[in-house]
């Protein structure tokens, strides 16, 4: 790496360092720097008298506490974030003049916030929902924000309907129920009466809406943007984040249980992975369409309810992002970070996607309320790493002390500075697209196909994924009280698949569709998670051991799994060290009370001769639950007796061995890599 690359990599961290305050070992003061002698008792008129208003320390402390909260985001309130770096693999000069996409030796600092959409800030993280995937690049040309989701399309085509969508999916206003859930009347009434949502609903009810972790979640820019090169030539572009670990999900029963067992499951996973040096990695990909080919497809490239099938428009992988540092303070960074799709750099521009156009207004408007005024760009987490100079002044929370008498353009008193910058010197110039037409409130005819890509998505799913979608429809609509809304949704999704609509209609007691069906036979293998990467890296295995387990053999298995990148955590009936019959000891990380099988990717029943009946029952419950969620199960020695052998012994993903531990470890590792063993589902 050259010096330039190293400097850019460290610039944001060095900038943040000046704002970090470490209180450990310091003396207590007020916010004005006055040393405080007493922080237990307020100032009173006598020991039993009233508190006096002159106690400025009490008033300062309480006033600050009373004002510590800011309005939570209307959407994406529940989020977690991390710092990292991005490096491009090869120069993208052919397509864009954006400098951070030119030099592979330069590492650009990034800050990434993951989130759920519908729930409040205190809601659980494993709910069925869209996930936000927002990335702030601190480039030498200014901040660039790629503000996307883990689903490549959206519910609506025009931003004017966004308030309606959110009002519908949020808790119903008369009773503020349900929290962080779409399984209620108003959401499905919106869907049935706004049928452009069909494609997004298919994604929302698929496994994509309950990701295993942020580390195993795809990201999409959603909208069509433009890349513009030095010659002024533009390409339409869609952005993709491809997780190096592949795209993996929870199962619905598991997701619901995790919401109770560990509502912080996703943020804990991200935090612990980074703290443990298991840095999440994502490759940046782009789909590119030449402007002259805008009308060469059977979809409108500007329609946010449509994707570009990867088989038709391949994804070109151009770089990698690594998240390698946790935040120092969640409020100061994660809560105060302000993303905006309008934060761009030269070489990246917008299109006439009507949903994107509305977002370009809405994001700034939201930050003005949440962060108290127009100076949110001066908060440490939002400050660009390059200098910024303009004639903006004053306002709430201003941190810059602007000197001099001039704050306007044009001027002669300051030699007309700060001065505009020409395009040749790096000034941003909007792409000169020819625009003409009458002022109308309407939509292009090419936006009116609401079902073909929803049908393509259904066609692309594996049999287990299709069953999950049917179950999701059955659950969601089973919670809807209105029979009319239920029937409307059945009839609507008959346009996607009569098979699908009939299956969930029967499950909810509605009338199966009398007409409908789709003529679309096209599929896109890239849409099925069956075709994702399957790696053992960072998978978490719960190892259940009891007194007098076979120490050396179990240790050898654990070490072999760790060598494959698998995380091993020991479970028993009490904390401390569990002793093997040969004197070996293993530290116990969890008890049956403090953890649950849903918090692991696989379970290894390692055995132990000196266990009670209660221990066996607890172990059997762990194993049975993991088995029902299609996870890998390993069993050796006495651990085999904790399985329901007549059900599990010959099932896919169940590995049993008590002779050759090296063979067992290898086979069990392969079973863990598969993520889930859906063949059990198909056998049922």
TrEMBL record:
Residues 1-33 are annotated as: Disordered. InterPro entries: Catalase (IPR018028), Catalase_AS (IPR024708), Catalase_clade2 (IPR024712), Catalase_clade2_helical (IPR043156), Catalase_core (IPR011614), Catalase_haem_BS (IPR002226), Catalase_immune_responsive (IPR010582), Catalase_large_C (IPR041399). Pfam families: Catalase (PF00199), Catalase-rel (PF06628), Catalase_C (PF18011). SMART domains: Catalase. One of its GO terms (biological process) is response to oxidative stress. GO terms for molecular function: catalase activity; heme binding; metal ion binding. Its EC number is 1.11.1.6. Heme binds at residues 73, 113, 162, 359, 363, 370. GO terms for cellular component: cytosol. It is an enzyme of class 1 (oxidoreductase). It catalyses: 2 H2O2 = O2 + 2 H2O. It comes from the Bacteria. CDD domains: catalase_clade_2, GATase1_catalase. The keyword Oxidoreductase applies. There is a cross-link at residues 340-363 (3'-histidyl-3-tyrosine (His-Tyr)). Gene3D superfamilies: 1.20.1370.20, 3.40.50.880, Catalase core domain. Its cofactor is heme. SUPFAM superfamilies: Class I glutamine amidotransferase-like (SSF52317), Heme-dependent catalase-like (SSF56634). The active site is at 76, 149. Keywords: Heme, Hydrogen peroxide, Iron, Metal-binding, Oxidoreductase, Peroxidase. Signal peptide: none annotated. Residues 1-27 have a biased composition (Basic and acidic residues). Decomposes hydrogen peroxide into water and oxygen; serves to protect cells from the toxic effects of hydrogen peroxide. This is Catalase. The lineage of its organism: Bacteria, Bacillati, Bacillota, Bacilli, Bacillales.
């Amino acid at each position: 790496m050259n010096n330039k690359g190293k400097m850019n990599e460290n610039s944001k961290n060095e900038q943040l360092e000046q704002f970090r305050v470490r209180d450990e070992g310091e003396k207590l003061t007020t916010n004005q720097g006055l040393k405080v002698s007493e922080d237990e008792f307020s100032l009173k008129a006598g020991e039993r008298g009233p508190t006096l208003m002159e106690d400025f320390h009490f008033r300062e402390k309480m006033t600050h506490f009373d004002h510590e909260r800011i309005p939570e985001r209307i959407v994406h309130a529940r989020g977690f974030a991390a710092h990292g770096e991005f490096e491009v693999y090869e120069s993208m000069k052919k397509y864009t003049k954006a400098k951070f996409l030119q030099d592979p030796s330069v590492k650009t600092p990034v800050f990434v916030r993951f989130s759920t959409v519908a729930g409040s800030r205190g809601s659980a993280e494993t709910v069925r929902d869209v996930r936000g995937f927002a990335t702030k690049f601190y480039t030498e040309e200014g901040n660039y924000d790629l503000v996307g989701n883990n689903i490549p399309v959206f519910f609506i085509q025009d931003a004017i309907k966004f308030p309606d969508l959110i009002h519908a999916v949020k808790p119903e206003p008369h009773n503020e129920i349900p929290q962080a859930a779409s399984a209620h009347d108003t959401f499905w009434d919106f869907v049935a009466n706004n049928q452009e949502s069909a494609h997004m609903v298919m994604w929302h009810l698929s496994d994509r809406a309950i990701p295993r972790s942020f580390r195993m979640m795809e990201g999409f820019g959603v909208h069509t943007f433009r890349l513009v090169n030095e010659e002024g030539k533009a390409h339409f572009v869609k952005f993709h984040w491809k997780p190096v670990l592949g795209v993996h999900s929870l199962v619905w029963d598991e997701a619901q249980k995790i919401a109770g067992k560990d509502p912080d499951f996703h943020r804990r996973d991200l935090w612990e992975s980074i703290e443990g040096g298991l840095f999440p990695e994502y490759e940046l990909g782009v789909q590119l369409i030449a402007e002259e080919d805008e009308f060469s497809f059977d979809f409108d490239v500007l329609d946010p309810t449509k994707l570009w099938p990867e088989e038709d428009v391949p994804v070109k992988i151009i770089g990698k992002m690594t998240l390698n540092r946790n935040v120092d303070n969640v409020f100061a960074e994660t809560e105060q970070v302000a993303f905006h799709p309008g934060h761009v750099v030269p070489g990246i521009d917008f299109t006439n996607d009507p949903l994107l156009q509305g977002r370009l207004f809405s994001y700034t408007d939201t930050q003005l309320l949440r962060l108290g005024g127009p100076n949110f760009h001066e908060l440490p987490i939002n400050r660009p790493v390059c200098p910024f100079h303009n004639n903006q002044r004053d306002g709430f929370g201003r941190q810059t002390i602007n000197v001099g008498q001039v704050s306007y353009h044009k001027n002669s008193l300051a030699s007309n500075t700060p001065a505009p910058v020409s395009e040749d010197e790096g000034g941003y110039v909007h792409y000169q697209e020819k625009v003409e037409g009458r002022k109308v409130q309407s939509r292009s005819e090419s936006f009116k196909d609401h079902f073909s890509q929803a049908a393509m998505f259904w066609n692309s799913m594996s049999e287990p994924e299709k069953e999950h979608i049917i179950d999701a429809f059955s659950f969601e609509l089973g919670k809807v009280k209105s029979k009319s809304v239920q029937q409307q949704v059945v009839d609507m999704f008959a346009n996607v698949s009569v098979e699908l609509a009939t299956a969930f209609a029967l499950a909810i007691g509605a009338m199966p569709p009398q007409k409908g069906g789709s003529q679309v036979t096209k599929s896109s293998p890239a849409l099925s998670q069956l075709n994702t990467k399957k790696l053992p890296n960072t998978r978490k295995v719960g190892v259940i051991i009891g007194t007098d387990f076979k120490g050396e053999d179990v240790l050898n298995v654990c070490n072999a799994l760790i060598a494959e990148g698998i995380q091993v955590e020991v479970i028993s009936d009490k904390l401390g060290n569990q002793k093997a019959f040969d004197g070996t000891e293993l530290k116990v990380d969890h008890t049956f009370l403090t953890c649950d099988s849903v918090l692991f990717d696989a379970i290894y029943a390692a055995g132990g001769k000196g266990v009670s009946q209660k221990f066996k029952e607890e172990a059997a419950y762990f194993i049975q639950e993991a088995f029902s969620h299609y996870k890998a199960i390993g069993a050796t020695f006495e651990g085999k007796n904790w399985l329901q052998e007549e059900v599990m012994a010959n099932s896919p993903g169940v590995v049993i061995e008590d002779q050759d531990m090296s063979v067992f470890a290898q086979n069990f590792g392969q079973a863990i890599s598969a993520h889930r063993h859906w063949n059990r589902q198909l056998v049922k």
